[in-house]
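Researcher: Please predict.
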Amino acid sequence: MSARPLYEPHPTALTVLHGDLENLARGSTTVFAGTAGSLLERTNAGGFHFYARQYYDGDGRKREQYVSGPVGHVDADATAAALRERIEEVKSATVSLRLLGREGYALADAKTYATLAALHNHGVFRAGGVLIGSHAFGVLLNLLGVRSATYATEDVDIARREGLAFPEPPAVDFLTMLRESGIDFVEVPTFDPRQPSSSFKQRGRGSFHVDLLVPSNDETFPTVPVPELRAHATGVPYLAYVLGETQASVLLAREGCCLVRVPTAERYAIHKLIVSSLRAQNGAKSEKDLRQAAVLAAVLAERFPGAIEEAIHRVPTGAAGWLRSGIARAAPLLEAAHPRALAELVG
């Protein structure tokens, strides 16, 4: 039992800065999947003078992309001017992003940012896709204006409760969307070769990977088709609960920021308590789940009383036992420094 607080609030000036970046992200339909880079003028072997953008992709490789041409043509110059303005806007924002990172805001790594930016550009989050897992935890900490211990992870978890509501069917499949990050993703083979993959990883020995998830109808983990993405997902027990209430917020990275969709903090916290019990035999992941749940419960109980209580009322009947077990295991993290949170959880 520790009396040390699980979180620290950020100064008001930083929360205002975070809000400014969120407003910037809300106004951006597309973002750079990588660094903003710079606009250059190039001449090819045939003497054609054109504009190109040079940047680093999500895998850290320098790339060059044709923009418009020829230099001096009114339409090409207008396209280049608009791109130059976008680049300068992002570079201006990165000054604020670096400041927030130094002050303890959670920043996504370059690979994660490029991957989620690529999905953002295809409208996955606007259509109802949800970022869950530790990257969502970081987004929620930033949104609540607090700092706490974050967890290094190379997992990106994308979930959807129902069919994604795209205005028009996507022109490409999920794997192609991921590859637009600049990272060479491949499907992860399953143990049963008859089963399609629901996980995607960077080619080679790296551990960076993306999992596609949907709710399971019971406590099994079936493979489920996701036709609108031309992909398959893994069914996860009680996932429908955490996806029942979501919100748009900004993902921060050193390269830029983009709008994603995450669960509400109270649903995330309660679901983590349930999941910590479901995988109690996996010590490291279970402890991570417990701590994330405790941090969010502490913040919510002290800043938004009643939110945790309301979230508990919405828990499916079948998960009630798992939740009680999770609360009991989280109690030592809360009882000394955050008794109000524990009181709300216990009811």
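Model: The longest strand covers residues 49-56.
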